[in-house]
Amino acid sequence: xxxxxxxxxxxxxxxxxxxxxxxxxxxxxxxxxxxxxxxxxxxxxxxxxxxxxxxxxxxxxxxxxxxxxxxxxxxxxxxxxxxxxxxxxxxxxxxxxxxxxxxxxxxxxxxxxxxxxxxxxxxxxxxxxxxxxxxxxxxxxxxxxxxxxxxxxxxxxxxxxxxxxxxxxxxx
Length: 172
Description:
Elements lengths: L1 H61 L6 E4 L2 E7 H5 L16 E9 L18 E5 L10 E11 L4 E11 L2
Parallel strand pairs: 2-5
Antiparallel strand pairs: 1-2, 3-4, 3-6, 5-6
């Protein structure tokens, strides 16, 4: 009887040990799941911040791009030549450097205040207000974060200067 009793007691203690190990493993798995969930959210937030910062730098560098800058009698001027904007295909990737997120870049006339928004093409120029500069394929229809900076738009055909803004719309 003593051998049978100690054998049952050993089995009970073994079952308790296994049960405690299983509970410990379950708690460990749940804790790791929460840790990785919050860690992934932190990484996504950091990626959004990096995207915003890189596009802010891009905002400053696009206005200085020599392909679209004004040059009058060989001298570079601090303005954007609208006739040069007409030749760009908005679907072609031409940004000075790549960013980690998708963005749409355009120039918009702000003053004099336009009656309506007309996208510029060779047929609508100079009576247009929006110059698409870069619009990658697959950009979502939903609105993104918009950042902008003022620019001077030069119309060489009429030799007019108008106030505009360079807009980068960042898509999630």
